[in-house]
Structures
1.
Amino acid sequence: MKMNHRKYLIVALIATFFVYTGISGVLATVPVQTTKEQSVQVYHSFHPGSIWNDTNGKVINAHGGGILYYKGTYYWFGEHKVAGPIGNTAQVGVHCYASKDLYNWKDEGIALHVSDDPHSDITKGCVLERPKVIYNKKTHKFVMWFHLELKGEGYSAARAGVAVSDRPEGPYTFLRSMRPNAGIWPLNFKKSWETSTLQPDSLKGWTPAWMKAVEEGLFVRRDFKAGQMFRDMTAFVDTDGKAYLIYSSEENLTLQIAQLNDNYTGFSGKYVRVFPGGHNEGPAIFKDNGKYYMITSGCTGWAPNSARSGVATSIFGQWKALGNPCVGNDSDLTFHSQSTYILPVHGMKNAFIFMSDRWNPRNPIDGRYIWLPIKMSKEKPIIKWRKSWNLNDFTNR
C-alpha cells in the first residue's frame, strides 16, 4: 500500500503516541512503512573458515567456544571479541547462541558480562578464554568454567573461573576464581618426587636435565601450595555423571585432568598429569566405544601448529599418544586452526564434530570457525578438510 509523505507523517506521529502512552493492541491496525529487510541466509551445511552469520544476519561472535546440549537445543558459548588488538582482552564477556540443527544459530545475548568493578577478578580488560558450560542434573544448575588472567598481569595468574545460572542461556553469576588443587598431589605423582629439592631456577631450561625434572614434577612442587596453573581448558561430563576439567598447566608443559566436586563448582581433589613435558594446549576430549580420546595442539602462541591426539581406557589414564589426527593439505597446521572442543551430535551414533578456531590476533573479531567431522579409523580419530559438509556425511560414510 502506498502513502504520500503527509499521511505517513501523521501515521508515524499517531504510532509514536501509542508507544509512549502504553496503549496496546492498536498499532497492529496502523499501517507502518518499513525499510527493505536485509536477507538472512539459512544454512543447510557447514563451510569451515567462511563467515558464519546468526539468524539476524550478524557474524557469530563466540570464539574459543564449547557446546552444551540441553532439552533439544544446542547452546554455543564463546568469547565475545571486538575489533583491534584490544579484542584479545575481555571487553564484553561470554556470548551465547542457540540452535536446533547446528547450522543456524539464534543470538541469545551475553551470558556472562565482564564487570565494571575494578576489584572484580573478571573486571573489563581481563583475559577470559575458552568458556565451557556443563549441566548438573542434581542441582539443576548450569555451570560455566573458563581460563582467567587478571587484568594487567599478563598470563601470570593462570586461574580457573566459575559462574552459575538457572538457565542455559544465562545470565551467569560469577562465583570466584582460583588455582586448582592447592596442597594436593596428583594421583599419578611418585612419592619420591614430592621431596625433591630441585627448583625451576636451579636448572637451565630445555636441557635434557631440565626436561627430566619437568617430567618429575618440577612445577607441580613449585605451585603445590598456591595451586596448579590453569590455562587452555575444556570440560567433560562422563556417562556416570562425574565432571572433569582438562587444562594446560605447569607453564603449559603438562596437561592436567581434574575431577570436579558433586555440584561442579569446585574441585574434588582428584587429578592426574597427562603427557608431562609434552607442551600441549587447546585440549578437546570425547568418548567413543568406552575409550577416551583427546585432541590438542602444540604451543606456538597464536600461530597454528600440528595437532596431537591420544587415547585412554580411563579418563585418568594411562594416556597413549596417537599422533596427528589431521590428514591432507595443511594438516601439519591443523588447517590453520587450533582445537577448542569436540561436539557429540545428539541422536547420532559415533558422530563427533571437531571444533577449532582460526585466530586473528591483530583483529580478533575476524577469527573464523573450523568445524569438521571426525572419522574413526582403527580406533584412531581422523580429520580431513572439507570445504563444505553436512550431518548426512556421518550416515553416508
2.
Amino acid sequence: MHAPIASPVTRAQGFGWLGIVRIGLVQAAIGALVMLATTVLNRIMVVELKLLAAIPAGLVAWHYAVQLGRPLWGHASDKGNTRTLWIIGGLAVLAAGGLLATQATILMATAFAPGFALAVLAYMLIGAGVGAGGTSALALLASGVAPERRAAAAAVTWIMMVGGIVASAITVGILLKPYSPERLVEVAQGLAAVMVALTVLATWRLERQAGHFRDAADDAPAPEFRAALAEIWHEPAARRFTIFIFVSMIAFSMQDLILEPFAGLIFHMAPGDSTKTVGQFHQGGILIGMIVAGIGGSAFSGKSAAGLRPWVVGGCLASGLGLGALGLAAVNGPPWPLEANLLVLGFGNGVFAVAAIGSMMGLAGAGETTREGVRMGVWGASQAIAFGLGGLLGAVGLDLARLLLGEVGPAFQLVFAVEAGAFVLAALLAVKATGAEAIRDSAVQGKREQFA
C-alpha cells in the first residue's frame, strides 16, 4: 500500500480561463518569434543561399544547447514572485536574437564567416530567451491551474502557441512576396515589436492571480538547486517521463528543419509559398489535434492523468503514419496530396503534444519540496537536448543520404522512415511513462529510493 498523497494546498483561487488564455498569448509570441529563426531563415539558408542543411540545423541545435540552462532559470523563478520578470525578459532577449539572426543570414550571402559568427551569437540569444521565458510561463501555469483543468489548460496554451506559429507563418509568407533581403528585415522588425508588446500586456499583474496547486506544502522553502535535481532524479516516474520526452521530441524535431526544404526541393515551391503551405497545413493540423486532445483529454481523464495515456500513444502512432506517407511523397513528387499529408502529420503531432504536456503538468506539482519551475526546467532541458539533436540528425542525415543515394527524393524518404520508427518507439515508452499511477507513486517511491 502506498502512502496517500496530501490534498493540494490552495492559497488563491488560481487561474480562470482568462488567466490561462493570457499565458497562451505568451506561448503564441514565443512560437511566432521562433518560427522566424527555425522556419523562414532555415529555408533561406538552404534554398536561396544554397548552404548545406547542416548549417542552419547546427545553429538551431546550438540554440537548443543553450536551453540546458532551463533548470537554473526555472529554479531562479521559483524564488519569490519573479516569474513575470523572467517571462518578459526572456521574450525581449528572444526578439533581439531573432533580429540579429535575420541580419546574420543576409550577411552570409556576401561574407559567410562573419555572418556565421554573428548567427552563432544570435541563436545563443534565441535559446536563452526561449528557455528563460518559456520555462517560467509553463511553471506559472502549472502552479496556478487546478488538476482537473490541466489537460484543457495545456491544450489552450499550446493551441495558442501553434496558432501564433500558423498566423505568423501565413502573415510572414504573404509579406515576403516578392522576397528581398530588405523586406525580410522589415518583416522581422515588425514581428519582434508586436510580440514583445503582446507579452507585456498579457502578463500585466498576472502573477498575483496564481494559486498554488501542489502535493507539497507551499509554505516549505524551495530547496537549493542541487537538492532539487537530486529529488527529481530519485523519482522513478520522473526519470521515465524524462526518457519519454527525450525520445518523442527527437522524433518530433527531426522533421522540423527539413519540411520547408522538402516543399522547395520536391514540390518546387517559392519561399513565401513553402512557408505558407507548411504553416497552414502542418501547423494547422497540429492545431486541430490539440483541440481534439484538449477536449477529449479533459472530458475523459478528469483529475487523473491515466486518461491521457491513450492520447499520448495514439498521437505518436498517428505521427509515425504521417511521416511514413511523407516518405512516399518524397519519391512521387507533385502528384502527391502534400497538403492532406501535412494535415495528418500535424494532427498526430498535436494530439501527442497536448497529452504529453498535460501529463507533465501533473508531475510538475508532485515533488516533496521541489517547485514547478525547476521540474519544468528539467523536462524542458530534456526537450531542448532532443530538439537540438533531432533537428541536427534530420538535416545531417538528409545531407548524408543525398551524398550516398545521389538523389533528393530517396534521401528524404530514408530520413522520414527513421523518424516514423522513433515515434513508434516513443509510443511504447509512453505506456509506462504516463498515467495516474506514475503521478501517484512518483514522490513516494522516489523518497523511498533516496533513503534506501
